[in-house]
Inverse folding.
């Protein structure tokens, strides 16, 4: 990867391609350290967010509690980074809608979370590259954290925030490159939120050599809300109120999203989603049971 160089105006030029009119959001990033003995970190959650749920927001709160009680880190900010449309996952709505919903959720329910649209509005970027982009913006461009008394600048560590289901894919052959895993877990590290149905030990057993950079956060109140279930509810005309922030529920209604399963599906995906609906109907269940 190329490193940043200085432009004519003295600002470091980005070593990455950015979408048109892109500016890194940092209006809620706290650059002043409160606890000089602690290492400053920023949490970054990558994913589809189709749509964003309360669980996505809860992940950050769980991580902050865990970090405060169990580590020598100080959390300076938190970002959601919705994946590009090129990720081609069933049920993936357009990046514009996903970014808008994440923005409503963070701006209207939180005082500290932000959404970075850098990844969403361009070609697919691997997670290792996304984390490098955050590292560049926060440390090279913004100059990192500042110590309160001396004004000395300190490097802010970027940490990947993810559910145990996502981390378990890191042990599946062919999903992540070994080089990227070493970069993500060796250089940055990850906070893993326990997710019902995905065993934490199993999720991390093949990642033992990066154990020192892996922080396991138990989910003390089990909550298994997933975007898949929300999409199923919407297709069946069921209420999703109180599963998602109210402004997101309103946005989905205004734009009639997820009602017609044509959004982001090819024919094979549509058949899979219909099969899930049929299985649910046959089981006579009052709630969908699938998490995938
Ligand atoms: N209930 C949950 N518990 C723990 N982690 C979660 C939960 N829901 C989502 N996550 C995590 O949030 C991140 C983004 O997830 P993503 O957008 O894929 O949501 P999802 O609900 O898993 O979506 P889908 O149902 O479409 O697969 C991932 O790291 C995922 O593991
Ligand atoms: O960088 C990789 O090689 C890589 C491999 C698998 C998944 N990811 C990322 O992990 C996230 C998965 O999101 P989701 O919705 O499929 O759980 C998404 O942000 C992907 O870009 C990234």
């Amino acid at each position: 990867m190329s490193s940043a160089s200085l432009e004519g105006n003295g600002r470091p030029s980005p070593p990455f391609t950015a979408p048109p009119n892109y500016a890194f959001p940092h209006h809620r990033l706290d650059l002043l350290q409160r606890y000089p003995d602690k290492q400053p970190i920023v949490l970054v959650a990558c994913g589809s967010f189709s749509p964003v749920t309360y669980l996505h927001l809860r992940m950050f709160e769980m991580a902050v509690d865990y970090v405060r009680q169990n580590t020598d880190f100080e959390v300076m900010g938190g970002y959601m980074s919705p994946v590009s449309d090129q990720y081609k996952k069933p049920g993936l709505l357009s990046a514009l809608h996903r970014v808008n919903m994440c923005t409503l959720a963070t701006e209207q329910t939180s005082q500290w979370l932000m959404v970075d649209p850098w990844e969403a509005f361009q070609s697919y970027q691997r997670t290792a590259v996304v984390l490098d982009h955050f590292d560049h913006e926060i440390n090279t461009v913004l100059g990192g954290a500042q110590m309160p008394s001396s004004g000395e600048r300190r490097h802010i560590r970027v940490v990947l925030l993810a559910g145990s289901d996502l981390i378990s894919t890191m042990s599946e052959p062919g999903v992540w490159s070994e080089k990227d895993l070493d970069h993500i877990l060796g250089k940055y590290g990850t906070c893993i939120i326990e997710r019902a149905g995905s065993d934490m030990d199993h999720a991390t057993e093949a990642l033992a050599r990066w154990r020192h950079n892996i922080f396991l956060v138990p989910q003390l109140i089990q909550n298994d809300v997933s975007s898949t279930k929300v999409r199923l509810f919407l297709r069946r005309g069921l209420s999703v109120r109180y599963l998602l922030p109210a402004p997101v529920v309103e946005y989905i209604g205004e734009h009639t999203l997820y009602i017609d399963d044509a959004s982001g599906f090819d024919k094979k995906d549509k058949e899979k989603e219909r099969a899930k609906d049929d299985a649910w109907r046959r089981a006579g269940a009052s709630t969908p049971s699938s998490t995938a």
Remarks:
- The beta strands are 5-6, 12-13, 39-47, 73-82, 113-115, 145-146, 153-154, 157-163, 190-193, 214-217.
